[in-house]
Amino acid sequence: MNREEILSTWNIEKLKSELKSCFDNNSEKELLSILKKNSFLFYELFSRKYGIQPIFREINFGGGLRCDFAWLNDNSDGPEWVLVEIEKPAVDLFRKDNHEPTQQLNHAIEQVKSWRRYFTQNPSEKRRIFGAVGRFRFIIVGGQKEDWEKDHASKWRIDQNSEYKIEIRSSDIFSRALKILVEYPDELWSFTENPQTLKHTDLENYWKSYAYMDKWRRLMN
Hints:
By secondary structure, the protein is α/β, with parallel strands linked by helices. The protein has a single domain (3-220), classed as Restriction Endonuclease, CATH 3.40.91. It is 48% helix and 17% strand. The chain has helices at 3-9, 12-25, 28-37, 103-121, 123-130, 145-148, 151-164, 172-183, 203-209, 211-220, and strands at residues 56-61, 65-75, 78-86, 135-141, 166-169. The chain has a five-stranded mixed sheet with strand order 1-2-3-4-5. A hairpin with a 2-residue loop joins strand 2 and strand 3. Helix 2 runs antiparallel to helix 3 (28-37), helix 2 (12-25) packs antiparallel against helix 8 and helix 4 (103-121) crosses helix 5 (123-130).
């Protein structure tokens, strides 16, 4: 696929306007709507940028739990499933009086921890939803880069990732992905196969029809 074909996959000018509005309004709802329709915005979260697997949205489990987005990293040492929680673009991260995490940030952390507990306690559900799981990678996206770069925030994030293995990224990753599309579209060719995220109801058919998963389902079930 050439440069022009990649650029024509997404409506860049419309997306610029939508992202600006979303950030101006600090709207999680608007951001989720944008992400559903533009898979390449997750570019920075992919450990391998080429030959990527499709992104699925709104994965429900446990009678009340849901992750916003998920995808498979089909690694040679086993399937790694990435589960992502999206927060407001400018969510308040830390209290100004004592630099303690806000209720919103603590809530996001607890949500992701509840996912891990659920799948640890319910391995059959893990297999039912994802086919086979070698490991999970948990990511929270929210807040602004300049807030995360403050010393107390950086130290807290390092400790959090070390203790709970939950990665936390700023919402600026989406703006940077759009900049890459404009300046270096060839970097995003792999996303053109699935330019939008897929419904959660497509997830089971996906891993059942993917030959890579056959071996791991046999070994892990």
